[in-house]
Amino acid sequence: MLKVSLRLPRRTPLPARLPALLASVVALSACSLAPKYQVPSTPVAAQYKTVGPWTSAQPADRIDRNGWWKMYGDAQLDDLETRLLANNTDLRAAYAHYAQAQAFVAQVESGLYPTVTASAVPLRQRQSDTAPLRGNGPADYNSVTLGASVKYDLDLWGRVRDSVVAGKDEAQASKADLASVQLSLQVELADSFVRLRGLDQQTDLLNQTVIAFAKALQLTQTLHNSGIVSGLDVSRAQTQLSSAQSQLSQNLAQRALIEHAIAVLVGTSASEFSLPQQTAVIPLPAVPTGLPSTLLQRRPDVAAAERRVAEANAKIGVARAAYFPDITLGLQGGVQSAAYSGLVSAPNLFWAIGPQLVQYVFDGGFRRAQLDAAKAATEEAGERYRSVVLAAFQQVEDNLALLSYLGTALGQQKDAASAAQYSVNLALSQYKQGTVGYLDVVQAQTVELQAELGVLDIQTRQLSANVQLLDALGGGWSSDELAQVAATPALVATATTPATN
Fold first, then answer.
1. What is the pLDDT of residue 57?
2. What is the DSSP annotation of 369-384?
3. Could you say which DSSP state residue 288 is in?
4. What per-residue confidence (pLDDT) applies to 272?
5. End-to-end CA, the chain
6. CA 261 to CA 269: how far, in whole Å?
7. Which among 145, 178, 184, 348 is placed 20 to 30 Å from 35, CA to CA?
8. CA distances in angstroms from 422 to 203, 392, 409, 419, 454, listed in the order given
9. What helix, strand, coil percent values describe the chain, rounded to 5?
10. Would you state the pLDDT for residue 66?
């Protein structure tokens, strides 16, 4: 049984006793029943396994936080990323979710302060003549009451404070979620853009190929009309030209779909959006990777997972506090009279002050189950955090390996393209001299086209892996972003009138 005894001098007036009473409350309300929080341990390597043409970041956050995509040096990409921040609907939805988390923090923080209410109740009443215990007073009378009340939860066991801590942790996790959504959308846009540019380069190559194959068809028709070659050569030349034209059409179809996806990302109708074809090569930048240990501070999804572990840990304290009495200090007072005149006067004054103690006696195991659930939720959040960390390291290693091996493959593919081009020149020369058939020319040209397309494909995959590496490293984000949960974060640009094409 809990006994609370507050002894004050009898002759001390009530207003003078209140500060001492509140001071006693503050002294009692310094405890928290939540376990001491520790970030779950995770295996962290000393260095990344794969080596390649990238630089070690000193300091770890060398990537531009205000626009990591600018390292690609493309003005069109810069413009699209800016439009994404201003107009993307998924990003706006994520921001609204973060705003809800902030509002919840304000909601739980209100429990740290007294609740003050005021009331005014002017009534005209009539009692029943046959009411029980009906006195000799008038049947009709006025009742005018002006009053106010103050209630304050002493929070001796930290239930409210731990709820506030949990709410702030969730708000920080939501802020990291917002950053994660923003980064994911930016990466999706950058990846789509480099693939679009790769398709533009392939389209340019296929257009040139169609022109070359059309000239080859014209040559074989001329030779056929002169009786030098058979109709089989004409048929082969026509087949080769039609195949190249088909590849070109398929390429344009893929480009259209990617262009439509980019339109949605920047918040524009696909029917009103278009990007001109560009064939300029996007340089492959060196990405500063940093040490593996810095990855835990550079990934917003890792930060969100860690904050949810802290939130679950704080909720253990809330569940434990439910075992102890809930003590609320109440104060109410006002004036009451049957007449409006002279309402605010000493004879009409009433007041009451005193604590309210509520302690459960039997709940059928409800609180025990709540505590068990809170502990299990903390364990679950810890394992999810470790899973996110391990996946983060895997994604970095995956893209480092891709960049390394694709760099080697690109050199080999360029050698293959050079050899194929030499074979085409040789086959055409011998065909004109009549020493080889047109089948040799077709085979050489087909191999050369596929080799050239292979070079462009590897270059695009390299850029895509480079973008994904930036994503795996957290872009330009840092866990310092979570130091404060501000009302208007700098993560999302203020929405303006959608930009026109």
1. 43
2. HHHHHHHHHHHHHHHH
3. B
4. 95
5. 73
6. 10
7. 178
8. 22, 45, 20, 5, 17
9. 60, 10, 30
10. 74
CA angle 457, 461, 466 (to 5 degrees): 150
CA atoms of 45 and 380, how far apart (whole Å): 24
Calculate helix-pair angle for 438-472, 231-265, nearest 10 degrees: 10
User: Facing residues of 116 across strands?
Assistant: 150
DSSP string, 117-181: EEEEEEEEEE--TT-TT--SS-SEEEEEEEEEEEEEE--TTSHHHHHHHHHHHHHHHHHHHHHHH
Distance, in Å, from the CA atom of 384 to the CA atom of 369, rounded to the nearest integer, reads: 22
Report, as ranges of residue numbers, the positions in the chain whose pLDDT lies below 50: 1-12, 14-15, 18, 21-22, 53-60, 486-501
Which tokens go with 127?
A: 């009692």
The pair of structure tokens assigned to 143 is: 């009742």
**Is the C-alpha dihedral spanning 52, 57, 58, 60 positive or negative?**
negative
- Sheet with 140-153: strands ordered across: 115-126, 140-153, 326-337, 349-358
Which domains, and CATH codes, for the chain?
Answer: 30-113+161-209+263-326+370-482 (1.20.1600.10)
pTM of the full predicted structure? 0.83
Read off the amino acid at residue 165. Answer: V
Neighbours of 316 (CB within 10 A): 22
Q: Give the position of tokens 């009103």.
A: 272
**Residue whose structure tokens are 């939130």:** 311
Name residues whose C-beta falls within 8 Å of residue 279's C-beta, 6 or more positions apart in sequence: 197, 200, 201, 204
The length of the chain, given as a count of residues? 501
- pLDDT for 297 equals 84
Q: Say which DSSP state 271 is in.
A: G
Determine the distance from the C-alpha atom of residue 150 to the mean position of all C-alpha atoms in its chain, rounded to a whole number: 41
Beta bridge partners of 331: 150, 353
